[in-house]
Write a structure and sequence with these properties.
Blueprint lengths: L1 H7 L11 H13 L1 H10 L12 H6 L9 H10 L1
Helix pairs in contact: 1-3, 3-5
Length: about 80
């Protein structure tokens, strides 16, 4: 989930973790799920990701949801990959 919101935030400048394995898992998930994550940013819809049981619906419909459709950001993300 953190990967999705990090990708959707164009103002993100730093990712900080205590353990290097956490960062490696972050990068691995980013690589493995790149297409679905970019599509989620484009659509503004949280994809089916492992560990979201019971959270996805709440996060998606919450009025202050951080994920909104962003086609401009999606075009930028596809150019950098």
């Amino acid at each position: 989930m953190n990967v999705l919101f990090a990708l959707a935030d164009p103002s993100l400048e730093m990712i900080n973790t205590i353990f290097s394995t956490t960062f490696f898992d972050f990068v691995r998930l980013l690589e493995e799920e790149w297409d679905s994550l970019v599509q989620a940013v484009d659509d503004g819809i949280i994809p089916e990701l492992e560990g979201l049981e019971g959270l996805k619906d709440h996060l998606q419909v919450h009025p202050s949801s951080l994920l909104h459709p962003d086609t401009d950001l999606t075009h930028c993300l596809f150019r950098t990959n």
